[in-house]
Design a protein that fits this description.
- The complex is a heterodimer of chains A (204) and B (362).
- By secondary structure, chain A is of the alpha/beta class.
- In chain A, 51% of the residues lie in helices and 11% in strands.
- Chain A folds into two domains: 5-78, Methyltransferase, Methionine Synthase (B12-binding Domains), Chain A, domain 1 (Orthogonal Bundle), CATH 1.10.1240.10; 90-203, Cobalamin-binding domain (Rossmann fold), CATH 3.40.50.
- Chain A has helices at residues 5-12, 16-28, 33-53, 59-78, 103-114, 128-138, 154-165, 183-189, and strands at residues 90-95, 118-121, 142-146, 173-177, 194-195.
- In chain A, strand 3 (142-146), helix 7 (154-165) and strand 4 (173-177) form a beta-alpha-beta unit.
- Mean pLDDT of chain A is 85; it is low at 197-204.
- With 362 residues, chain B is an alpha/beta fold.
- Chain B is built from twelve helices and 14 strands.
- Chain B has helices at 3-11, 33-40, 124-136, 143-153, 167-175, 178-187, 190-212, 230-248, 267-272, 291-297, 316-330, 349-359, and strands spanning 21-24, 45-51, 53-54, 71-79, 82-91, 94-101, 113-116, 140-141, 157-163, 217-220, 254-258, 277-281, 302-306, 336-340.
- In chain B, a hairpin with a 2-residue loop joins strand 5 (82-91) and strand 6.
- The longest helix of chain B is centred in the middle third of the chain and has 23 residues, at 190-212.
- Chain B is globular.
- Chain B starts with a helix and ends with a helix.
- The model of chain B is unreliable at 106-110 (pLDDT under 50).
- The chains are: A alpha/beta (204), B alpha/beta (362).
- Chains A and B meet through helix 4, helix 5 and helix 8 of A and helix 6 and helix 8 of B.
């Protein structure tokens, strides 16, 4: 399938207006929305992910590109029938109890939405019962927890223990992230936990 | 040596008798306050942050409501058990309002986070600009507070003269959401151009005060990490740092910056900067620049290393081992200081800091 280079390029440079226009042009030419997404927006994010992991692009630029892609997806999916657009997966996200930082979490949410994930963002200072209820009700494929403070990281273990207690641990993949998340704490949590990075390839 | 003498030695490029171990005074309030007193007796240094000017900028701790044509209101409330406060500025050019939420932990306002940003639309920058322009003529040196803090700390520590953030950092941390700031700084509407110019003018005024300020160490509270690209660092941080460095020439003051995140992407820019102190440096594995690399990349710069996050939850013997390794890797008492400048779990603070002091020979 042909790559939509104008969409790819506009996402890579983080040109939000141009991305919107390029998506509209493609749709007006009769290109199917899913093709616009997969051969344009997603490929653009792949390039961004590669440049970010090699140090050519940095967080503010990545964010701009993710915003551009998100706007493009919004336009592309506007005309789609209900059920026609299936999100790649669902993820419940939240910053753990006692912690009010959310920049990293919000960035991950943005990147995942731009990648076609359905993101349920529980916000900050999320107690374990809210994570638990969200997992029960929304049945996500992933649960993502963020903690920036050394003092709050342990809450992740509390949530994981609660999932285990309620028979939900095997029903969801747990991702943890945070600027100061040390590996030795991660090892004490659960062996199947994935560490979130901003490498977009992780969420390809 | 006293704690103060140790810190002064490091700042002056000399050898202290032991690597200074310090803690930020603002962490002493609440139930955990006793640990600071006990450890000070062992030689722990106490650090106060004192803003160079009064009133300070638009920050919940140091907000300036005293502008004649700006109506300011601040309302505290709780929501689902979290303390929050809404601040509203009504000016002749428009109004802005924002909400900060306070960390539920017993560390007052240290970890307040922006829940609702002041700047929601590009036009809101005009209101921010109006307020900062109004503050330019009202800035005055904060000597009395500094002297009071210095008298209080005496030989048990010292006070840093604190400078506010550079334009990009202030924009995304204090004024707008990261998304808003990213878009506006990329698209550069007129209001952002004006914002940047006003922030430069603001810093020019503060730099003049810094030159006369009684603090030995002038520290940018800039929270530098990988949230800023090298391009933005060069465009928005370096010129401001250089402005201060020029003004401070001929004084014995030392200029530094709070850099408490991953700095790998900024290695070269930091090397080129006139900053002498990298304050709150994070060692690996949570940071991404090792001490060995730092010594090689940034010869002559001083590292104020923050308490290592990867040691926050381990047993005291592992803490001691970890900090001994830090001291060994640096290989000298010169040019390094250990500070509790970020958070540690409250129930671990005394145990952790005791172990640190054990490791450094106290």
């Amino acid at each position: 399938m042909k790559k939509l280079t104008d969409i790819i390029d506009s996402v890579v440079v983080g040109n939000i207006d141009e991305t919107r226009e390029a998506v509209r042009r493609a749709l007006n030419r009769g290109i199917a929305p899913m093709q616009v997404i997969n051969q344009g927006l997603v490929l653009g994010l792949d390039v961004v992910g590669e440049k970010f992991s090699t140090g050519e692009m940095f967080l503010p630029e990545l964010m701009l590109s993710a915003i551009a892609a998100r706007e493009g997806i919004q336009i592309a999916t506007e005309g789609m029938k209900v059920g026609e657009y299936q999100p790649k997966a669902t993820i419940v996200l939240g910053t753990v109890k006692g912690d009010v930082h959310d920049i990293g979490k919000n960035l991950v949410a943005l990147v995942l939405k731009s990648r076609g994930f359905d993101v349920i963002d529980l916000g900050v200072d999320v107690h374990e019962e809210y994570f638990l209820n969200a997992v029960k009700e929304c049945q996500p494929e992933f649960l993502g927890m963020s903690a920036l403070l050394a003092s709050t990281m342990r809450e992740m273990a509390t949530v994981v223990a609660a999932l285990q207690e309620h028979g939900l641990r095997n029903k969801v993949k747990v991702i943890v992230g945070g600027a100061l998340l040390p590996k030795n704490l991660l090892l004490k949590l659960e062996p199947t936990i994935m560490v979130a990075t901003l490498d977009l390839q992780l969420f390809y | 040596m006293t704690a103060r003498e140790r810190v002064m030695a490091v700042l002056s490029g000399e050898d202290p008798d032991k690597i200074p171990v310090c803690a930020f005074a603002l962490l002493r309030t609440g139930f955990q306050g006793g640990w600071l007193r006990r450890l000070v007796k062992r030689g722990l240094g106490v650090i106060h942050w004192v803003p160079i000017h009064k009133p300070a900028y638009m920050h919940p701790l140091w907000v300036n409501p005293y502008l004649d044509d700006v109506k300011y209101t601040q309302t505290y409330y709780t929501e689902k058990g979290i303390i929050k406060y809404r601040q509203t500025f009504e000016t002749p050019v428009g109004s802005i309002t924002g909400v900060e939420r306070v960390n539920p932990l017993d560390v007052p306002l240290v970890h307040a986070a922006l829940e609702e940003a002041f700047v929601k639309e590009p036009s809101d920058w005009r209101v921010v600009n109006y307020i900062f322009k109004g503050m330019l003529d009202k800035l005055a040196p904060n000597y009395e507070e500094f002297q009071r803090a210095e008298d209080e700390v005496g030989d048990t520590g010292m006070c840093y003269g604190i400078v506010g953030k550079t334009p990009w950092q202030r924009a995304w941390i204090e004024m707008a959401s990261l998304e808003r700031a990213v878009i506006d700084f990329h698209e550069r509407p007129e209001a952002i151009q004006e914002y940047i110019e006003i922030q430069k003018a603001f810093h020019a005024r503060v730099a003049e005060m810094a030159a006369e300020f009684p603090a030995k160490f002038i520290d940018f509270a800039d929270n530098i990490s990988d949230m800023i690209s090298p391009n933005y660092y060069r465009e928005y941080c370096l010129p401001i740092y250089e402005m201060y460095s020029k003004v401070l020439e001929g004084t014995d003051k030392v200029l530094g910056c709070h850099m408490d995140g991953r700095l790998g992407s900024l290695k070269n820019e930091i090397a080129r900067s006139p900053l002498k102190v990298i304050e709150s440096f994070t060692v690996p594995p949570c940071g991404d620049v090792s001490l060995t690399e730092a010594k090689s990349l940034w010869p002559g710069k001083i590292l104020f290393v923050n308490t290592a996050p990867h040691l926050a939850w381990v047993e005291p013997q592992e803490v001691r081992k970890g900090y001994k390794a830090i001291a060994e890797e640096w290989g000298s008492k010169r040019g390094i200081l250990l500070e509790l400048s970020e958070d540690l779990p409250l129930e671990k603070v005394e145990q952790h800091m005791s172990a640190v002091m054990d490791a450094f020979g106290y």
